[in-house]
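Suppose a colleague, Dr. K., hands you the sequence of a protein chain of 480 amino acids and asks what its three-dimensional shape might be. Before reaching for any lab equipment, you can write down a predicted structure in token form. Begin with the sequence itself:
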Amino acid sequence: MVKKHTIAIVGGGVSGATTAIRLGELGISTILLEKKESLVNGPPFCHLHAGGNLYPDISDDQCLKLMEQSIEMAKLYPNSIDRRPTFIAIPKGEEYEPKNLIKRLDKLVKHYKSLISKDSTNEVLGAPDKYYQLFEKETLDKLSEEKSLKHPVTPEEWMTKVTKIVDFTQLKFPVILVSEYGWNLFRLAAQAQLALNKIKDCKVLLETEVKEVIDKSKEETDYNWEIKTNKGAFYADYLVNASGFKTGELDNDLDINEERMVEFKAAYVAKWEKEEGDLPELIFHGERGTPHGMAQLTPYCNNNYQIHGMTEDITLFKDGLVKSEEEDAQPRLKEKFEKKIEKGWSKKEIKERTQNAIDFIVQYVPSFKTAKVGGPPLFGAQQIPGEDASLRVAEVSFPSKFYARSEIVKASSALDVADKIVERLKKEKILEKDFNTGRNFKVLNSISVKKIDEAAVSLAEERGYPKDMGYLLVSKKREK
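The predicted structure, expressed as tokens, is then:
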């Protein structure tokens, strides 16, 4: 008789790691297989998306769902949330108007209030009546005369700092400050790794590459799956495919083919030695994929910044979006993108594309011209189920018996996926009907902030990024 686990999870990204924690904390025998040397690698995330305000083109329903999911993930990993606001503006040349965004924000406030009325612990984005604040030019002119604080707290204090650096002559009014917080992937990875090391019912195998998955459910064995890896074979009753952009590879092993896309994307790291003082995240809306796509400047500790620019010269890439074929469930990225994922970038390309990103921000923040390359890009390939490239909310599917496929596009969907898998285990009688599946995160919650700090800094350094990116710019302690 072979040694088996109840659940085998392939892929240790945010979805695989969160599902492993959810199952392991319930006492369900779980094995997590991850190809890389640590958990929660690309594609990068830096923003909680608690409302989807970065995506003018997605539906209101997706925005409301993103808010719900983001709140749940913020409650699960509170020490990975950077509690600084986001500044949002629309350049004058764009067709989109502030009134469109304000209309959606009002719906989000209403929804946020309803979530809090159902459960008071959902108030993680600040008071709902202060979820967003509008600023007209006259107010900004007055704020520009005030002295900016090193560590702002109120919306007016945050905006005072913004008035010192942003070129408002290019923007429509009003501009907006909204409680879409930052999300530190190094800290989430650190807490998840530390928790999984302590959860006795979950075994984590890093640097473990899955070579083949075999369905044994119709054979006379006491397990349903055989998973062949570079470290030997493993056996399980239930399989969770959390392979991210490689999800189609496992589907190919199982002769399952569904439409999906994969998109290669990158963000860039810059060091900007400016006058001391914290900034909110800065968003300047623009049409995705055009030369004036959205510009995003995300602050980290000690003057480190992450840059997105939704153009093919910066975050997006020509031929970077690919689709699956009729006989192949795995969308095939071009070799140049696969090479980046496996081996990294050339110094020349890092310098060129980071400089493109810096120049893109300079059009709105002129003084950013003094920024320099701060580290390698944060990059990866994002899976998108179906054929809608603008889809941002996707969760989990169950294409065959004893098999779950995580299909998240945004990290905020990860806990939703884990919950649905737990319920599915009952339906398929892997768990007894009366098994208590209530959320239990005793081990995860026991990890100290000090331990998370240490592990997050180490992860950032190990991956070649400034160590300060492992810290929070604004913690909960700094709030009034």
